[in-house]
Amino acid sequence: MPKLVRHTAVRWPAGGKGNAIVNKKRVTSALMYYFHGSYFYICRNAIVSLILEPFIVSARKYRPQTFKDVVGQGAITNTLLNAIENNHLAQALLFCGPRGVGKTTCARILAKKINQDGTERDDEDFAFNIFELDAASNNSVDDIRSLIDQVRIPPQVGKYKVYIIDEVHMLSQSAFNAFLKTLEEPPKHAIFILATTEKHKIIPTILSRCQIFDFKRITVKDATEYLKYIAEQQGIEAEESALHIIAQKADGAMRDALSIFDRVVSFSGKELTRKAVTENLNVLDYDTYFSATDLILENKIPELLILLNDTLSYGFDGHHFITGLASHFRDLMVCQHPETIALLEVGEDVKNQYKEQAAKASKDFLLKAIDLANDCDLKYKSSKNQRLLVELTLMKLASITYDGEKKKV
Q1: Closest CA relative to residue 112, chosen from 53, 67, 156
Q2: Which of 51, 52, 139, 171 is deepest in the core (most CB within 10 A)?
Q3: Do 186 and 192 touch, CB atoms closer than 8 A?
C-alpha cells in the first residue's frame, strides 16, 4: 500500500478567487469527509484538506468604517465631524431617512469617533462604551426604565457612553413619555443616537429634544461608483451600464444595491454584463425600447406588435412595457438639450445610443408620444382589455409621423 502524504491545507477557492487548486492540480476524488469546519478529500496517494471560508454579504463586508467611506451623505458626515472637532455635539441625535442609506453605520462610526483621543490602540472599537438597542423588541416602559438605570453609570474606558436606539418609532407611547426626562437632561457622559425610517411616528416632544439629521436617498451616480469600487475589489469585470441598472433598481438604498449585486454575481460569475443583469432582475433591457422607438419612427406597425408579443411572452406585462416606453421617450427628450443631458442616469455607452436616437426624433413627436404613453398608463388598470389598449397606443404612436392619409388619432 503506498504511503499517504498529507499536503498543506489550501483555501478554496484559492486565495478567495478562481477555482479550487491543490498543488496546481484539480482535486478529483469520490471520498470526501467533513471534520471541524473543513472538507478532506482522499486522493490516490494524498489526503488534502480544503478550508472553506464562510460567505459574507457585501453590505456587511464593505460596511464603511470611517465617515469618508460613507456614500452620498457628505453634508451630514461633514457636520458631525465639525461638531466633534469644535465640541458642539448634541447629546441627543435623531438620524432619519429611508432604508439602507447609512443611518446605523453613521451612528456606529460617530460612537467610536467621539471616544477617540489619539491615545487608543489602532484596533480599539470601544465596545464597552457603545450600546445598541432594538426598539422593535424593547418597546415597553420596563425596557426604558432599565436603560435609564444603565445611563447613570459612567464609562470605565473613554469619555462617553453612546446609546444607539434603532427603529425608535416602534417605542410605545408610554415608553416615549418615560424617556423624555432622560433625553432632555442626560448625564454629561451619555449620548443618545436615535435612528428611524418613519420620523412622522415619533411624538413631537421627542423631536424637539433631538438634533435631527435627514439622510437622503443615494443617487444613481454615487451608487454606481461604489458598486464599481466593490467590483474591482472582488476582481469582477462589470459593464458600467449593468451597474447603472442595479443602482436604479435599488431605488436609492445602498444596502439594496449591494444585495442585488451579490445576487447577480452569483448568477453571472466574474463577468457582469448588462444582459445578465436584466435577465436576473427581470427588467426590460434598453435595447427593447430602442428597437420599439425605431419601429415607431419608421411607422412599422406589424413589426411593433410582434415586438410587444415577444416581450409579453418573456413574462413581462403590458403595463411594465408602456411605462418603460414613456420613460424612454422622456430620456430622449432630455438628450436633445446639452443643459438637461445630466438628467439622464445611464452609462456612457447607453448615453451615446440615446443621443443618436434623440437626433432622429423631433420635439413635437416626443411630446405627443409621452402624452399617449402616459394616457395609456393611467387607463391601464381600469381597462377590460389591457393588451388591446397597449396595442392601440402603439399603433397611435406609429401613426404620429405617418405622411399618408391625414387622420386624427
Answers
A1: 67
A2: 171
A3: yes
DSSP-derived pairing of the beta strands 46-52 and 5-6: parallel
Please answer whether residues 356 and 286 qualify as being in contact, where contact means their C-beta atoms are separated by less than 8 angstroms.
no
Residue 9 is classified by DSSP as P
Burial class of residue 35 (count of CB atoms within 10 Å of its CB; 0-12, 13-18, 19+): exposed
Q: How many CB atoms lie within 10 A of CB 39?
A: 15
| Nearest to 240, CA basis, from 354, 345, 355 | 345
Query: How far is it, in rounded angstroms, from Cα 158 to Cα 170?
Result: 30
Q: Which amino acid is located at 48 in the chain?
A: V
Q: List, as one string, the DSSP characters of 145-194.
A: HHHHHHHTSPPSSSS-EEEEEETGGGS-HHHHHHHHHHHHS--TTEEEEE
Q: Residues 319, 380: contact at Cβ < 8 Å?
A: yes
